[in-house]
Amino acid sequence: MSNSVCGTSRIVGFRFSLYPMSDQFVEIIQSTLKEVDKTKVWVQTDDISTCIRGKMGHVFDVAKAMYIHAAKTGKHVVLNGTFSIGCPGDSEGDTYMSEDDVRINEPRVANLQIEAPTQFALYPMNKDSYMQIIAGVCEIAKEKGTFTGGVHYASRLDGDAHDVFETLEEAFRVSQEQVSHVTMTVNISANSPSRKKN
How confident is the model at residue 95 (pLDDT cuts 50, 70, 90)? Predict the structure, then answer.
C-alpha cells in the first residue's frame, strides 16, 4: 500500500483511449500507432487503453501526434485520456527522463491543420486554493485564444490542434509548478458530424 505523500518524480503520464467512429477502427488505430514515434516515452497498451510516460514535452508530443494522425483520416475520432504528474510511487520508467528535449513527432505533424474541439478539466490535488489555480489556467487559455467557455465539470477549448495542445501543455505545466500532484482530463473530438450541422 503506497503512502499518501505525492511522488517526487516529475515523470508525466498520459493514459488514453482512441475511439474512431468507423468500421475501419482497427486499421485507424493500428496505422496511428505505427505513424507516431514513441521511442522517447515509456509505453504500455492493454485491451482498454494505452499509457505513455516520460518528460512532459515528449508526452505531449506523442499525445498531439496520436490525435492528428488519427484525425487526418477524416473519420470522426475521439481521444479521451488523463494526464498526471506527481502520482505517489510513480517512478517506473524514470530512465526516459534522461532523453533530450527534441520533439521527434513535431516535424511530421507541424504542417497538418486539424481542428481540435476539446473539453478539459484540471484537478490540483490536496490544495485548498485549487479554484484559483483552475481560474489561472482558464486565463492562459483566454490569452491563447482557445478558451470558448465553461461547461458542467469542464472547460471548452476550440481551435487548431497545435494551439489547443499548446494551451493544454502550458496549463498543465503552470499548475504542476504550484501543486506537486496534478491530473488533467481531456476529451478531444475530430470531424464530428454534429459540428458540421451547426
Answer: confident
CA distance 151 to 144: 19
| Residue 60 included in any domain | yes
Our count of domains for the chain comes to: 1
16 closest CA partner among 69, 71, 59: 59
Q: Extract the C-alpha cell encoding 187.
A: 476529451
Q: How far apart are the first and last CA of the chain?
A: 50
Residue 52 lies in a domain: yes
Which residue has 528535449 as its cell numbers?
A: 101
CATH (domain of 187): 3.30.70.930
The more confidently predicted of residues 94 and 172 is 172
Q: Which domain holds residue 23?
A: 12-88+113-197
Residue 100 lies in a domain: no
For residues 40-69, one letter each, b for 16 or more C-beta atoms within 10 angstroms of the residue's C-beta and e for the rest, the string is bbbbeeeeeebbbbbbbbbbbbbbbbbbbb
Q: Where are the beta strands (DSSP E) in the chain?
A: 12-20, 42-45, 50-54, 77-85, 118-124, 147-151, 154-157, 182-190
Q: Give the number of other CB atoms < 10 A from CB of residue 169.
A: 20
